[in-house]
Amino acid sequence: MPGIESECQTERSKTIARWCGIFILAALVYQQQVQGIVTLSRTGFLSLFGAALLINLFHSFYLFRAGACSSFYKYISVGLDLMLLTFLISNSGLNQSPYFFVYFVLLVSNCIRYGLVMSLYIAVLVNVFYPIALSLGPHQLQPSVVGGEGLKLLAFWGVALYGGAVSARIRRQVYEIAAYEDTIAELRAALRKPAATAPGAAPMDEPLEQTDNNPAIAEPKPQPAEHLRLLNNEAEWIKGLAPVGVVLLLIALALTFFAPHVLWFLLYPLLIVGAFAALATTAAWLLRYLRL
């Protein structure tokens, strides 16, 4: 649609922002490594940021040469970003890591670009990666916030849901306005073409007077594009995910009661996916019936 940035263009802009983020984080981590604040070894430092540079270099070569990219590409790129960031957090203090806030930076930046489904996707990955990183660390962790790590994850979910809903509303309005502009331009072109060929026609830059004799002017006004309320069939995508999440939620609850010895970090992702299905279904209902 003219005037709307494509996903490939959005990923290109993310690639440029990612270059800046990599160098800023590398400088901060190196400084804290010299001061002894970060326990990340030199090998780990080179491996982490070397992998980040190689991945972003691939993004740059691919995106700046491709005319279009798959709709799944954005989910892959965000997943890789979260994996690298989780590795950094696990080697820089775990729950006391100063880089936990970067999760929020990634969430907000992608939420603004892609809307509610992307924000829920990031929230699910963070609620899987972060507990796994904590479970692989020392068993005795110093508390970082009042209420424990659950409060941090709950705050993350709050930002994801609210920011995603607001972004979805803004994106829907932008696409509907663009659709109206395209329709208006097409109607104007259709009106000017027969009027310009008629004898004694008005100049092209002057507005045409509405008359009952001109059938083109009597065309009905365009109706709102209902399919733009959730872009790229996101409503169908959410509805398809909901049954899977409900099944996983039931399995997780059954394991909680009948197999309490199961490691909590293996059980936790099942609970999160089940909760995600319920939240996603609720969000789809709100967007559909309350016109958020």
Structure notes:
This protein has 292 residues and is mainly α. It has two domains: 7-137 and 144-169, no CATH class; 230-292. Helices cover 69% and strands 0% of the residues. The chain is built from eight helices and no strands. Helix 1 runs antiparallel to helix 2 (42-63). The longest helix is centred in the middle third of the chain and has 49 residues, at 149-197.
Number of domains: 2
Rg is 25 Å
Distance between the termini: 22 Å
Give the biggest beta sheet: none
Shape field: globular
Which H/E pattern describes the elements?
Answer: HHHHHHHH
Mean pLDDT comes to 74
Give the amount of beta strand, in percent.
under 5%
Q: Assign the structural class, choosing from mainly alpha, mainly beta, alpha/beta, alpha+beta, or little secondary structure.
A: mainly alpha
**Quantity of strands, as a count:** 0
- What is the share of helical residues? 55-70%
Question: Helix count, per DSSP?
Answer: 8
Extract low-pLDDT stretches.
215-232
